[in-house]
Specification:
It is globular, with a radius of gyration of 34 Å. A hairpin with an 8-residue loop joins strand 8 and strand 9. The protein is α/β, with parallel strands linked by helices and 973 residues long. Helix 40 packs antiparallel against helix 41. Strands 1, 2, 3, 4, 5, 6, 7, 8 and 9 form a 9-stranded mixed β-sheet that branches.
Length: 973
């Protein structure tokens, strides 16, 4: 098929997803010291016999027995989805067998094991006398060994990554967090004490994944119809059929609760694979749950028993995992379907495809489709409330509508923190690896190779490229077979295939050996280069050359891809490609040319950072400045320092930005770089504006604007001029010169035109903020929505966060709805991992006011403290608002404190030269004065505030001031 081959078959060494069991004899050193050598040797021989008998019984392989210690592997030569469960079952048997050994021991001594089980990807190599039957490489053996060490006598510690949904089969203790060397996050491990009985298993199965029910309305309605028919005396049978993880059990549990509420008796059981299954197992479980004393033994006995129950009460019989049913259970089911006149509904869940002959066990099959995009979004929001929308979208894309995959990816994202930027979102859950790999290994060998090649190509697979590498086109029977097995489906664009679930592709990709994978990546890159449309595939070329180990080509194409993404205002893609280019350059031999190229790429990355700041990029700009000083001329140094200043500005570090900017300006002027000097002047003006130093800010901005206006051709988007105009506009707005501010915003938008560009998001965002200051809440909300729309299109999380927060604050002012405050909380939290402080005092001020307003006082005061901390960096925009919120909070209990807060609000407003803040603070002081019975003083303040509001066209605030005075006057009269 191709000249790149994978493992010869499932039994060949290489990368494997396995479960590993480490077991050791507890207190073995003390035992050895207390026993004669011959007796201890007999003990070790007995242990080895236990190991050799128990491990193969559960489908495992003994890798190594060293002294009293055991290493066993489950998942080789064939991966099974329940390998983790098999390993835990084997450990339980080992512990029981060792406890039951009858050996001559020193007085007061007993035998016990301590064991650890962990799952994941290992590299299996040939073993020898020292390494055991196999050599196992990777972190998984190390973690399994550490779990064994952490376990106490008689204890089995199993990682959560191994158990997953199989935890229902065991009685487990409270989870423990263990810090493992080489892992950033602690490992969660469960002590397993015993196998769970059937009742506990059923309860756990029902409880697993019980987040709010999402979607499946049509399927639920259909089940309700069948139940109504059954309750009228017309027996019905229904099978819910879908692949693993599609939500069969979740749907059925929702339905069973409704059936129970309607007075139905619920009988439930489940089938198992070859592990511990007994004939008629699901029906025996049903019988046990009713407490019947004389269990039937024959299939017809179970049928008669259920028929009698259905005569006395409407009955629902549910069997989970019917695809593992034994022949006797199938006989019972067939007999139940032949019953007439009984109030009986039989329900099955199965992984069998709807066209499979075995599905005929039920009269009707309901296949479950993937969740719709809206349903997936609801499921993600239920599991990760408040997560940023770009992470949520990436989870949805990888999960492909599979509820189980959504749950696992959300879990992975939660462990990684809210700042997760998924590459491979899948967090390494061994049970999920084994589930996917077991499906792969059931394919014919040719299809296994084909699906692995497709995984190396990517989540979206051009059919021509797959054909070029493997010889199989999209109409090939082998490719059609992958579609029938639910691995791939036709992509959105003609001539492409797509993996149904991105997480499946990721797991398959990681199962491919490193050297085979690198060779494939290089062949794929070369095939793309030879295609006529290669010029449009820079991102793919960068990816494949990078993974193929060709750093020079990877850097070249990643830089091109970054430039193209930046030109298209795709900020996240531009950032990813520029950073990939920098990483690839770092793998090349050092050179002056490489250093200068590194500096140039960081400067383009700075354009992204300005609109979507990320603190880690400050270190990159610092390094770029150092390289420029080593290898560049004076102009290069000035430009590098300028970009370092600009990135510092974007992160809210105004003092550092001003210092670097002033030095860069001197260097640019000395080097005769007039255009660069103008850019630096504009940036210094913008930075002084962020520091509320409005005098020098306006002077510098006006100087830069005049030069940029003189050079404007009118034919292209003028980003620099637009940005300077926006900064000038919000300075004027803060001073209460709203009409002039809106004129600047209009001119800025004219510089942009109809182009979807990140500067447009900035313009609408700042206009919405100025409209908030003016009290034009509805207009502010609309401007914020437009800013958010553009931010989503350009993939700027920072701009989207600000837009959502502004819109939510407008909603709060209009409706006083606590949900609006929570929306600000969530939008602000999106940016916490980025450590960007630019104008963050606004968010904290809105939160201080809103949270205190809805009674979440401690949270409000916490955000107030954050706003005041931002004031140390001269970020003052939210500080006066914060002091007003604190003053209102303190007014009733601590009037002296309230007065101090008001004084500080005035001081902040004067430091900003903010006319609207002064007037709003007068209104706030008047409210407090009236609460304290100081009407004359309040009236004087209201008169001043009303006059200021009228002069600044702040109509909403004016109505508030006039209304407050009228109400106070009526009360006084």
């Amino acid at each position: 098929m191709s000249d790149t081959h994978f493992d010869a078959g499932p039994s060949a060494p290489g990368r494997r997803y396995v479960a590993l069991l480490f077991a050791d004899l507890s207190h073995s050193t003390e035992l050895a010291g207390a026993m004669e050598a011959e007796d201890y040797a007999a003990l070790l021989a007995a242990l080895r016999n236990v190991y050799q008998e128990a491990i193969p019984k559960h489908g495992g392989v003994v890798v190594r027995v060293q002294g009293d210690g055991l290493l066993a592997m489950f998942g080789y030569p064939h991966t099974r989805e329940d390998d983790g469960r098999r390993a835990v079952d084997a450990a339980l048997d080992l512990h029981q067998s060792v406890r039951e050994l009858r050996l001559a021991l020193p007085a007061g001594r007993s035998l016990s094991l301590h064991s650890g089980v962990h799952s994941g990807l290992v590299l299996i190599g040939a073993g020898d006398i020292e390494r055991g039957r196999f050599e196992l490489l990777g972190p998984v053996p190390h973690i399994a060994a550490r779990l064994s060490e952490a376990a106490g006598p008689h204890e089995i510690l199993v990682s959560e990554e191994t158990l997953g949904p199989a935890s229902r089969f065991f009685s487990t203790g409270p989870p423990r967090q263990l810090q493992m060397k080489g892992r950033d996050a602690p490992l969660l491990a469960h002590p397993v004490a015993a196998r769970a009985d059937d009742a506990v298993r059923a309860e756990a199965r029902a409880r697993h994944g019980m987040s709010p029910f999402v979607g499946r309305a049509a399927e639920l309605d259909l089940l309700e119809q069948r139940l109504a028919e059954a309750m009228s005396g017309k027996p019905r049978s229904v099978a819910i059929a879908a692949a693993a993880g599609m939500g069969k059990t979740r749907l059925i549990e929702q339905f069973l609760r409704r059936a129970a509420a309607r007075g139905c008796r619920i009988l439930r059981g489940y089938c198992e694979s070859d592990l511990g299954a007994v004939p008629l197992q699901p029906f025996r479980q049903m019988l046990q749950s009713t407490g019947a004393e004389a269990p039937p033994e024959a299939a017809e006995d179970f049928t008669r028993w259920i028929a009698r129950l259905a005569e006395t009460q409407p009955t629902v019989v549910f069997v989970d995992d019917w695809h593992w049913a034994d022949d006797a259970s199938k006989q019972v089911l067939a007999a139940l379907r032949r019953l007439a006149g009984r109030r009986l509904l039989v329900m099955l869940s199965t992984r069998l495809a709807a066209h499979d002959e075995a599905i005929a066990a039920a009269a009707q099959t309901i296949p479950l489709a993937p969740l719709t995009p809206d349903e997936a979004a609801q499921a993600i929001a239920a599991r990760l409330p408040g997560t940023d929308p770009f992470v949520a979208a990436e989870i949805a894309r990888h999960a492909g509508g599979n509820p189980l995959f959504i749950e696992e990816l959300c879990h992975s994202a939660a462990l990684g923190g809210s700042g997760l930027r998924p590459g491979r979102l899948h967090g390494g859950a061994g049970w999920l690896d084994q589930l996917v790999e077991s499906r792969v290994q059931r394919l014919p060998p040719a299809q296994i190779e084909l699906v692995r090649v497709a995984a190396v190509i990517g989540n979206v697979v051009p059919a021509w490229l797959l054909s070029s590498i493997t010889g199989h086109g999209e109409d090939s029977p082998a490719v059609r077979g992958l579609a029938e097995q639910d691995f791939v489906f036709p992509g959105e664009h003609a001539g492409t295939l797509r993996f149904k679930h991105g997480i499946t592709r990721d797991i398959i990709y990681e199962s491919v050996g490193l050297h085979a994978r690198q060779q494939l990546h290089r062949r794929i890159a070369q095939a793309i280069q030879q295609q006529s449309a290669a010029a449009a595939q820079e991102e793919a070329l960068a990816c494949h050359f990078d993974a193929g180990g060709d750093a020079a080509q990877a850097a070249h194409y990643a830089e091109l891809a970054g430039d193209k993404a930046l030109a298209a205002s795709a900020l996240d893609r531009a950032r990813a490609q520029y950073r990939a280019a920098l990483a690839a350059l770092d793998r090349l031999p050092p050179s002056a040319e490489g250093a200068r190229r590194w500096v140039a790429i960081v400067q383009r990355l700075g354009l992204v950072c300005v609109y979507d700041p990320l603190r880690s990029e400050l270190a990159l700009s610092r390094r770029a400045l150092h390289l420029a000083e080593q290898f560049g001329d004076a102009a290069t140094v000035a430009r590098a320092r300028y970009w370092h200043a600009y990135i510092s500005y974007s992160l809210g570090e105004a003092r550092a930005a001003i210092a670097h900017g002033e030095r860069a300006l001197a260097e640019a002027e000395a080097a005769g770089e007039a255009r660069l000097a103008t850019q630096i002047v504009a940036t210094l003006g913008e930075t002084h504006a962020t520091a509320a130093q409005y005098g020098p800010a306006l002077e510098l901005l006006d100087r830069a604007i005049a030069i940029k206006r003189s050079h404007r051709s009118g034919r292209h988007t003028n980003v620099g001029l637009a940005f300077s105009l926006v900064c000038r506009a919000y300075v004027l707005g803060d001073r209460g010169l709203f009409a002039q501010a809106h004129e600047c915003f209009d001119e800025a938008l004219a510089c942009i035109g109809d182009v979807t560009h990140e500067i447009a998001a900035t313009t609408h965002g700042w206009r919405s903020a100025v409209l908030l200051w003016q009290g034009r809440w509805r207009e502010a909300r609309e401007a914020a929505r437009e800013s958010g729309r553009i931010a989503e299109a350009t993939r700027s999380l920072s701009q989207l966060s600000i837009a959502r927060a502004i819109g939510a604050h407008a909603d709060w002012m209009l409706e006083r709805d606590p949900r609006a405050v929570q929306a600000i909380v969530e939008a602000t939290a999106w940016l916490a991992p980025r450590e960007s402080g630019l104008f963050r005092s606004l968010n904290y001020g809105w939160l201080a006011e809103g949270l205190i307003g809805v009674g979440r006082r401690d949270e409000g005061r916490h955000n107030a403290a954050l706003a005041l901390r931002r004031a140390r960096e001269r970020d003052l925009l939210g500080v006066a608002m914060t002091y007003r919120a604190l003053a209102r909070d303190a007014a009733a209990r601590r009037p002296d404190a309230a007065r101090r807060y008001i004084e500080r609000a005035y001081a902040t407003a004067r430091a900003r030269d903010s006319a609207h803040e002064l007037a709003v603070t007068q209104l706030c002081e008047a409210e407090i004065a009236l609460q304290q019975g100081q009407a004359p003083r309040a009236f004087a303040l209201l008169d001043k505030a009303a006059a200021a509001f009228d002069a600044m066209f702040m109509a909403w605030h004016l109505r508030e001031a006039v209304g407050l005075r009228d109400r106070a006057s009526r009360r006084a009269g």
